[in-house]
Each structure stands twice: as structure tokens, then as C-alpha cells.
Design a protein that fits this description.
alpha/beta, 18 helices, globular
Length: 432
Amino acid sequence: MQFFDNGDRKILSDDILSFLKEEEQDNLAIEQSVRQMFADITANGFAAVRDYTKKFDNFDLTEENFKVSLDEVDTLAAEISPELSASIETAVERVKAFHEHQKEFGFDTEDAYGNKMGQRIVPLDSVAVYVPGGRALYPSTFYMTVIPALIAGVKRIVVLTPPRTFQESPEIARLIQLLGITEIYRGAGCALVLAAANGLPELPKVDKIVGPGNAYIAKAKQICYGKIDIDMIAGPSDITVIADTNKKEDAAMVASDLLSQAEHDPMARAVLIASDKDFIDAVTEEVYRQASLLTDTKENAVASLNKRAMAILTDTVMTAVELANLLAPEHLELFSDNPEILLEKVKFAGSVFVGKSTPESVGDYLGGPNHVLPTSGTARFFSPLGVYDFTKRFSYLQFTPSSLKHYREDIAKIARSEHLEAHARAVETRFE
């Protein structure tokens, strides 16, 4: 875990900026590979998806098992423990309750001349939700992506997921039952995304694809953007914890919160910002101690801490918030006895976890707000996934004859200033 003394600076020092620079990835090679896959799927359809699924997932995909049957879903769902099913149902209800507040409504208005205008908000017709199945299976991602689409009123919700999901995840099968999803496809993840964006006889085209995934999934979504809509380009997960404390007994909690993201992936980034060097030292020691006790995710966590984690010493907690705004983290935790004061200064973050009793994992599972969040500093301009991502807007305008007559000269003058004579004549002919 790299240490930096940023002093009283309200900007990130050059050495911090250098450390933050993402390790170079072979993005060009990934892009070329995905574009070749897209061309193959466009030309050869399901046969290409079948071949990629065999190559990457070692699964024999057929036209019969491409779409997952609801009988198969029911059989797998029966394997879930009643206790876990009850916990998932609790999470679903909490996430639904939060997202109900995100509904948007159109408006109608009329001006002094009797002209009517307004805006309509309508749900998308079809959306595909990608549920990853690479390093780990995440049932929570399933309900976080599906629930806002359901609340928005999307008619057709398609689930795309690797074959592994229906070999190992009764949790996702139970969620399919619980949320009433009937259209589910399995296959190599990247190939599925490309197929859903392009459309196949076996998998009709969708209007939008959402959900996180690896670098290939992200590149596939990026390549398809414009042909369809997407939610965002997701990168490795990250967390920033502002620790407004010097109590060594708090170090264990802060360390566990940093690890909650470090264990995801070797490329995940955990950042601690504090104004007490002794406390930073205590957290650093504790985070490695706790990482050594992990089982399934120990390797990920240690690699993330060694290569990507950082601790920043600053003069005051308010400077810490300013630095956090520059980082624009996916997850921002305000570990403080007076977190509300800090929250007022936050501008850029995917989701904020307020106070010592709100670890990031609460938000991952059942807090209410969505856990599909902008990563890699893109919280400066992207927002969390929400109901608004599954709707579109259109406006309407109805002018009265007298109003058109009143404004005809203004319209014609502006049109002719742009050398668009037909635009001007479209108004004027109505009065000849």
C-alpha cells in the first residue's frame, strides 16, 4: 500500500497522479479481437456464438439450450437454502423501495398564445442485462440491474450470462423466479453482448445493454454504442475512505472496508485519506493482516494492495473531501462521527456511505441505492444505474394559427439567416 504525504494541498500531487495512472492495457488488441468477433457474429449468427462459447467456456451450446428453459430455472432454484432465499427477498424489497422514488414524470404546459407543449417519458421496449460469471458470480448484480428496468416499465427484459451461471448459481435462478424474467440466454459473455446488439433469429435485437463485466465486455458495449444504448463503460472497482479519526481501535473497521473492494480484483483500487499518520500506519498494518486471513479472495486482495492501493496524508478532513472530489471514486466512505458535514461538500462520487455504521458492503447488497456505479474517476460525469436509464424522453409542440401568424416573420428571418429558404416558406405558405 503506497503512502503519500499531500500536506495542505487541495490538489493531487504529481507523484499521486503518476501512481493513479492506469497500468497500460493492450486495449488495441482487445478492440481488434472484439471487432473481429462482431464481424463473425454478424456474418455467421448463432454458429459464431456457439463456437466462441465452446472456445471460451468449454460449453456445448446448441439452438435448443441457447435459451434457458424455465423448467431448468425452477430445478436449479430449488437448490437454494430457505435462509438465503429470505435474505435475497429482503434485499430485493429494499432495492425496489429505493428505486420507486426515481420515477420521472413528463409535463404539459401552455403559453400566453394558447400554444401547447410538453414532454413525455416512456420506457424502452427492450433491454438486455448482462450478469457476469467470470472470476465470481454476483446475484446482487442481477437484481440491481433488473429492478430499475422493471420499475421503468420495460416490456422485454433479456438476461445474458455465461453457462457457468446455470451450473453453479441457484441464487440467480431464484431471482429469475422472484422478478418474473422469462427470456434468458447463456453463452460466451462477449459474444452474447454482440449478438444482442446486432440481433439474431434466435436472439432478437435489444435497444440497450446494461451490466458490468471484464475488459472484453466493456469493449463490446463501447463498440456497439450508437447501434444500441449502453449504461456506462465499467472498469475495475474502487473505494476511497475518508477517515476522520485517530482512534487505533477504528483501524480494523477501515481496513475491512478497504478490503471490501481490494478482494474483487488485482486491478481494484483502495484509497485511504486521513490526517493522522499514526492512524494510517495502523490501518496499513491491519489491512495486510486481514488480507492474509482471506481464503478465496486472498490473492486478489494482496495483489490489489501491493500494486494499486494508496494512503494519502492531508492536513484537514475538508481537504480530504476536496481530494476525494478530484478522485471521483466509485464508492466514497465518510468514516466520521460527523459525516453529514462532509457529505455537504461531496460533489463527485458514484455512491457515498455516510458514517461509521455504513460499510460499503451494505450498499452492495441491500441498502437500497444501486451498486452499478461509474468507475475509474468517471463519477465526474456518469451517474449510478437507475430507473432513468431505462426510459427515454420526447417533446411535443402544438401551435395555434394565430400564434404561427404572430411569429412567422421571426421564424422566416432566422431561417433565411441560415440560408434555409424552404424552412421560411414552410411558414409563409400557410398565409398565402
